[in-house]
Specification:
With 506 residues, the protein is of the alpha+beta class. It contains 13 helices and 18 strands. The strands form five sheets. Strands 5-9-10-14-13-12-11 form a seven-stranded mixed beta sheet. A four-stranded antiparallel beta sheet has the order 16-17-15-18, with helices on one face. A hairpin with a 2-residue loop joins strand 11 and strand 12. Helix 5 packs across helix 8. The two termini are 33 Å apart. Bound molecules: 3,4-dihydroxyphenylalanine (DAH). The site of 3,4-dihydroxyphenylalanine has 21 residues, from strand 13 and strand 14. 3,4-dihydroxyphenylalanine (DAH) binds next to strand 13 and strand 14.
């Protein structure tokens, strides 16, 4: 497919979607950073990665196809609207590095040459974040805020919801099932699911080899409490803390809520859940080849356990991948419901990451993996919209109990209420960022906003001004919205967009 070219500095998209299966949404997320590759290798990785579907960290339902050259949001734009796909691809690609991932992508600012680095830096500089009307508390859970704070109330409200700890919630059920498998594999495995999502940029990025100017650190993609503190963008942020406790802890799983500023659709939400797994072993006890075999056997077993499949030819496959924290890096796909679906990202832990955790790579090595839980739960339970995970509607919650996974319960959708559509057409300044726009809409509309689609974009040939037109789909999951109530919120969105993003409405 003639998908749009990605910007030179990005390597890989977050959750690009197969153009051939346009509406099988994928979440992008993880940011994979390409660190030590040559320019040529990086370029090759870029196109390969950009063409992949899934987002390990994110919840989107990734379906693999042969032709994955368009981003997932391609399904949201009119056929042939290459500009929208290009914008989306570039946005995803820029994030796909840090463990964003799925969020997986990468940018090689240093390895791909000065021009690339300059381009990445310029892009970061341009990403001013709209925080004008953001109410800034002095502190958040004991951490002082500063001028970099960019977390709206709606996102703050997600902290402490602890969906993973609810035994009858689809995410809690899935997390329990993952633990069950690892308990059988390794009785000493430690399970961690109460770590606070407020972490240092050191643990979230530096320790994991995410370059200082990587776009995934941008406040347009990541929620900052202050300059050195973020809402974790992936559970990999806890890797080094627990690796440091080797040999008391030799293997662990760490699950929790992770946060990313992002677009709005059925598979993207600013808060979602991941599970991280690590196993460490003495070098004297296992060769590097045996570590790789152990990784593959264990994770194929996990996929088989979750999907009720048997590992083997035809049902699962391994693809090369890139994450800054593992070398080599792989992704596991499973053939499910007639298509290849990305299940997880993993690899052999990079020696620098071991060193950052105070370990000696001459003595200890190991593997790690990351899993996006919403995405799997959406597939396994047939849940069509990511907002449902946060719903208190008994018609959702009463469909699940702790045995729902074992009993192969599928979600029975309740009636959909009619949508109300609102279009926003505007001249945008150079600093305009789609995520800032989505954030204002989320802030005003909360879970009543189902989707924000870019419909049109063009640059005026004479004035050089750029225009964008978005369609906002409002729909409550429990009742019919009236046009009047949506109008009130829409007007509020418009006035904030004008005031905070400096756009000119058309
Ligand atoms: N942190 C990655 C993400 O958010 C997921 C991941 C990939 C975790 C590979 C890992 C790993 O531990 O080895 O997409």
């Amino acid at each position: 497919m003639g998908g749009p070219a990605l910007p030179a500095f990005t390597l890989g998209a977050q959750a690009p979607m197969a153009a051939v299966v346009p509406c099988r949404a994928a979440r992008a997320g993880a940011v994979r950073v390409v660190g030590a590759r040559s320019g040529a290798t990086a370029a090759a990785a870029s196109s390969a990665s950009a063409a992949r579907l899934g987002d390990l960290g994110g919840p989107g339902v990734a379906a693999s196809g042969r032709d994955r050259s368009l981003p997932s949001t391609a399904c949201q734009v009119a056929a042939g609207a290459a500009f929208a796909a290009a914008a989306s691809a570039s946005r995803r690609a820029s994030r796909r590095a840090v463990g964003r991932v799925q969020p997986l992508g990468l940018t090689p600012p240093s390895s791909a040459g000065g021009a690339v680095a300059a381009s990445a830096a310029a892009s970061l500089a341009r990403r001013a974040v709209a925080t004008a009307t953001l109410e800034k508390p002095d502190e958040m859970y004991g951490t002082a805020t500063d001028s970099k704070f960019n977390i709206p109330q709606g996102v703050r409200d997600k902290l402490g919801r602890d969906l993973l700890l609810k035994s009858a919630h689809p995410l809690g059920i899935l997390w329990a099932s993952v633990q069950e498998y690892f308990k059988e594999q390794d009785p000493d495995c430690k399970f961690i699911d109460t770590e606070m999502p407020i972490v240092g940029t050191k643990e979230c990025f530096d320790d994991l080899r995410v370059e200082p100017d990587h776009p995934s650190r941008s406040p347009s993609d990541t929620y900052y409490v202050n300059e050195g503190t973020v809402l974790r963008t992936h559970t990999s942020a806890h890797q080094t803390k627990y690796m440091r406790q080797y040999p008391e802890i030799k293997s662990f799983l760490c699950a929790g809520d992770v946060y990313r500023r992002d677009e709005i659709d059925a598979s993207h939400y600013p808060c979602f859940h991941q599970c991280e797994g690590v196993r460490l072993v003495e070098r004297s006890k296992m060769t590097p080849e045996e570590v790789m075999e152990d990784l593959k056997r264990t994770l194929e077993g996990l996929a088989a356990h979750l999907f009720n499949a048997s590992p083997g030819e035809g049902t699962m496959r391994w693809n090369d991948d890139y994450f800054p924290f593992t070398e080599p890096s792989l992704e596991l796909e499973i053939f499910y419901n007639g298509d290849w679906m990305e299940v997880l990202g993993c690899g052999v832990i990079h020696h620098d990451v071991l060193r950052n955790a105070g370990l000696d790579p001459e003595k200890v090595h190991g593997w790690a993996f990351g899993l996006g839980l919403e995405r799997l739960a959406m597939v396994l339970f047939g849940i069509p919209d990511i907002r449902l995970f946060w719903s208190d509607d008994p018609r959702f919650s009463e469909q699940f109990d702790k045995d729902a996974f074992k009993n192969k319960i599928r979600f029975k959708p309740f009636s959909k209420y009619p949508p109300v559509m609102k279009d926003v057409s505007m001249w945008i300044p150079e600093s305009f960022n789609d995520n800032d726009f989505c954030e204002i809409i989320r802030d005003e509309g909360g879970d009543q906003v189902e989707k924000v689609e870019l419909q049109d974009s063009f640059t005026h040939p004479k004035t050089g001004k750029t225009s964008k037109m978005f369609r906002v789909v409002w729909r409550d999951m429990s009742r019919t919205l009236t046009n009047d109530e949506v109008n009130t919120k829409h007007e509020q969105v418009l006035s904030r967009v004008v005031a905070e993003l400096k756009v000119e409405l058309r």
